[in-house]
Amino acid sequence: MVMLPAGNQSPLLPVVCEKQLTGACYGGKKAFTFLLAALLCLLLAGPAAAEKRIIINKATNQLQFWQDGILIRTFPVATGRRPSFTPEGNFRIVSKIVNPYYSRLGIPGGSPRNPLGCRWLGLSIGGGGVYGIHGTNNPASIGTYASAGCIRMYNNDVKWLFAHTPLGTPVIIINNRHARPAWPVIAPVTVAAGDQRFTVKGIIGAEKELPMLPLRAVCTALDCRVTWDGSTRTARVIHNGAILLTVDCNAWQAASLAAGRKAFPCSDVKLLQGTMYVPLSFWPRAFPFLQVNRAPGKQNAVLFKCKYAAGRPPAPGAGPPGTPCPLCGGSARDSGKPGGPGNTEP
C-alpha cells in the first residue's frame, strides 16, 4: 500500500475506495490502526463540526450541506451501481485528503486518470479509507448510479465541500424518494424598498421570521456601507461617515442611531459562510420608522415601507430628530410629509 501524498489530514489512512467489493486487503494495515485513526480524527474534530452536517439521498442522488439548521447548498452526486453498494445510516467524516492515491490501480494523486478526483472525505464506516465522498475523472457519471459504493461529486463541488467540512462532521445517508423539500434554505429573495426592486440571497422558509435577509446586501442597495471587524466580531452600517447601526456578534446585541442608540438583543442573527443574515423583526428594531413584511402568499418576497413617507407619526423611540430614513430620506423632523424618492440618501 502506497501512502498518501502531502495534504492528507489523517496520514494513517490509505484510500481503498471503489474496491471494497473486490475483497482486496488493506496492504497489511491492521484493523485496530484504522479504528485508532478514526478515533483520533473524531477527537481532533472538536465542537466545530456540531454545527454542520451532510445529508445524502441515494433516491435523488443529491448531497445537502447544512449549517445551523439551514440548507446552504445542494449538489448532484453519483452513488452505488446497486442499492446495497452505498451504505445507509449515520456516519462521520474521519479523514480528509488532497489528491488521494488510488491504490487499486496504483494511480498517483493528481493524475487525470485518478477516479477519485482531487479530494477525498472518508466516512467512519470502514475507518475512513473504504467509503468516502470524492471527486471524479468521469463527470458524465454524476447524477447516476455508477460507483462501487462511494459518493462521487464534480471536482469543483468536492473542493467546496472539502473546504467547508471539518473532521467529525455528521453524514446521514438515506434512500427516500418521497423526502419533503428541505426548509429553510438559501434562495433568491425579491426586496421592494421604496421605488427600488432588487434581489438578494436570503434564507426562506415557512416560519414567520423568514425570510432572513443578508445585512450587507440590503444595506448596500440602500446606499449604506457595511464594515466587519473580525477581531471584535462587530458589523457597522455606515452612511456619510456616520455609524447608523452596530451589531455585536459576541454579545449578540445591536445598537441603532435611529433607536436612540439603545441596545437590543439580536441572538436570532445568523452568521453563515461569511454572511450575516437578519430576521424580518430585526429591521424595525434597528430602524423604527420601517415597516417590513413578507409579501402576501410568498416566501421569497419582502416589502419595506417607510412610516414617514406614509404620513404616519414616527414610532416611539424612533430616534432623535433628523435621523434619516434609509428609504425616502425623510426623518422624524419631517413626519407627516411625503417622503422623497426611494433611492435618495438614507
Tell me what you see in this structure.
The protein is mostly beta strands and 346 residues long. It folds into two domains: 144 residues, L,D-transpeptidase catalytic domain-like (Beta Barrel), CATH 2.40.440.10; 150 residues, Copper Amine Oxidase, Chain A, domain 1, CATH 3.30.457. The chain is built from four helices and 22 strands. The strands form five sheets. It has an eight-stranded mixed β-sheet, with helices on both faces. Strands 14-15-16-17-18 form a five-stranded antiparallel β-sheet, with helices on one face. Strands 12-11-22-21 form a four-stranded mixed β-sheet. A hairpin with a 2-residue loop joins strand 15 and strand 16. The longest helix has 15 residues. It is elongated. The termini are far apart. The N terminus and C terminus are likely disordered.
Question: What is the structure about, briefly put?
Answer:
This protein has four helices and 22 strands. The chain is mainly β.
Characteristics:
single chain, 346 residues, mainly beta, L,D-transpeptidase catalytic domain-like, Copper Amine Oxidase, Chain A, domain 1, eight-stranded mixed β-sheet, five-stranded antiparallel β-sheet, 32% strand, disordered N terminus, disordered C terminus
Physical arrangement of strands within the biggest beta sheet? 3-2-1-10-5-6-7-9
So, CATH architecture of the largest domain?
A: 2-Layer Sandwich
The oligomerization state is single chain
Residue share in helix: 10-25%
Low-pLDDT parts are: 1-50, 313-319, 331-346
> What letter string, H or E per element, gives the SSE order?
HEEEEEEEEEHEEEEHEEEEEEEHEE
In DSSP terms, counting alpha (H) and pi (I) runs of 4 or more, how many helices? 4
The major pleated sheet works out as: 8 strands, mixed
Compute the separation of the termini in Å.
65 Å
Question: What's the shape?
Answer: elongated
The CATH topology name of the largest domain reads: Copper Amine Oxidase, Chain A, domain 1
Mean pLDDT: 78
Find the structural class using helix and strand composition: mainly beta
**CATH class annotation of the largest domain:** Alpha Beta
- Superfamily (CATH H level) name of the largest domain: Copper amine oxidase-like, N-terminal domain
